[in-house]
Design goal:
10 helices, globular, 83% helix, 0% strand
C-alpha cells in the first residue's frame, strides 16, 4: 500500500514537472503569445489526476494478484447485500452535507472552517473555463471515488480480511491512510472527513462489496459538487 501511495505522489510530481517543462518548450518554439503559461490550477489538476490514476492502476494490479487472476474477486466486486441499508447510508451522507451547509450559513466560525478545509479545486469550481470545470467534476465524482474505493476498501480491505483481521481493524487500517492523504494540504480536513470514513467502512461491511462503499462515496462527492455548483450560480 505504501509503495503504491508513494508511486502516486511521485507520479503527480513528475506529471506536474513535465507539464511545466512542456509549456516552457512550446513557448520558446511557438512564441510566448501562442502558449499560455500553466497556472496553479493546471498543475493541481494534472497532479491530482496522475495520483488518482496511479492508485487505480495499483488497485487493478494488486486485485488481480490477490484474486489469482480474478480481478473482481480480488477487489471485492460482488453483488451488494442489504441494499436498503446501503441506500439509507447514501441518504445519511446527503442529509449530513445539507445540515452542515445550513449550520455553516448561520455560524460564521463554522463557515470559515468549511472554507479552510474545502479543496481549492472545489472551492473554485467555476474557475478555469469549461475544460477545467469538466476535469474537476470528472475527478471529484468519478475518478477519485473509483480509485480510492478500489484501492483502500477494495483490494486492501480484501487482503486484510483474508488475513483474518476483524472489521474494526480493517476499517481503521483502510481509513487512516485515506484520511491522511486528504489532509496533506489541510490537516483540519481529516477531522471533517472522519464521519465519511466511518460511513464508507460501514457501507463496505454491510454491503459485502466495494460497490456499496463506492456508491456512498459517489453520492457524497456528487452532492458536494452540486452544492458548490449551486453556490457558484447563486453568486453569479
Amino acid at each position: 500500500m505504501l509503495a503504491w501511495v508513494a508511486a502516486g505522489l511521485v507520479g503527480a510530481l513528475l506529471v506536474a514537472t513535465v507539464l511545466g517543462f512542456s509549456a516552457v518548450l512550446l513557448r520558446q518554439v511557438l512564441g510566448f503569445g501562442f502558449v499560455p503559461e500553466p497556472g496553479l490550477l493546471a498543475y493541481v489538476l494534472a497532479g491530482s489526476t496522475a495520483f488518482q490514476g496511479t492508485l487505480l492502476l495499483g488497485a487493478l494490479w494488486q486485485g488481480r494478484r490477490l484474486g489469482n487472476g480474478d480481478r473482481r474477486e480480488g477487489l471485492g466486486i460482488r453483488r451488494i447485500r442489504h441494499v436498503g441499508q446501503v441506500a439509507l447510508l447514501c441518504v445519511v451522507m446527503i442529509v449530513c452535507l445539507l445540515s452542515f451547509v445550513l449550520l455553516a450559513a448561520r455560524i460564521p466560525a463554522l463557515r470559515e472552517f468549511a472554507k479552510s478545509v474545502t479543496p481549492d479545486i472545489m472551492a473554485r469550481l467555476g474557475e478555469g473555463g469549461p475544460l477545467a470545470v469538466l476535469v474537476k467534476v470528472t475527478l471529484a465524482v468519478i475518478l477519485a471515488p473509483l480509485s480510492e474505493e478500489l484501492f483502500f476498501r477494495g483490494w486492501l480491505w480484501e487482503a486484510l480480511g483474508r488475513r483474518g483481521h476483524a472489521f474494526a481493524t480493517t476499517a481503521c487500517v483502510t481509513a487512516v491512510p485515506w484520511l491522511l492523504l486528504h489532509g496533506l494540504d489541510s490537516p483540519a480536513r481529516i477531522v471533517f472527513l472522519i464521519p465519511a470514513a466511518v460511513v464508507f467502512s460501514v457501507a463496505r461491511q454491510r454491503g459485502g462489496s466495494v460497490l456499496a462503499s463506492l456508491l456512498v462515496h459517489v453520492t457524497n462527492n456528487t452532492t458536494a459538487v452540486l452544492m458548490q455548483a449551486i453556490a457558484v450560480l447563486v453568486r453569479a
